[in-house]
């Protein structure tokens, strides 16, 4: 492969990667918006969690970042 072909291949791969990352970031935001709607409808982070996606703890953290208040009777914070 010539140096020009290598450079073109790198540039194409970078462009494809950046496009995919932008799409993935938008899809992630859609997912967390859906989690907020689900939490507002009464679903818990434990109900939303799936091993191949996110843990309940991570979902809870992201819901708090988006202004969703903890539900009464939910998990308690660990004592150190």
Largest sheet: none
Instruction: Please trace the helix and strand order, writing H or E for each element.
Output: HHH
Percent strand: under 5%
Distance between the termini: 59 Å
Radius of gyration: 20 Å
Structural class of the helix and strand makeup?
A: mainly alpha
Q: How many helices in DSSP terms?
A: 3
Q: Which spans of ≥5 residues are poorly predicted at pLDDT below 50?
A: none
Mean of all residue-level pLDDT scores = 92
Per DSSP E runs of 2 or more residues, the count of β-strands stands at 0
**C-alpha geometry:** elongated
Helicity range of the residues? Answer: 55-70%
Protein name: Transcriptional regulator
Organism: Actinomadura graeca
Question: Can you summarize this structure?
Answer:
This protein is mostly helical and about 80 residues long. Helix content is about 65%, strand content about 0%.
Give structural notes.
The protein is built from three helices and no strands. It has a domain at 25-68. It has helices at residues 3-40, 45-48, 56-65. The chain is an all-alpha fold.
Give structural attributes.
mainly alpha; 65% helix; elongated; single chain; 80 residues
Secondary-structure map with pairings?
Elements: H1 3-40, H2 45-48, H3 56-65
Protein name: Transcriptional regulator
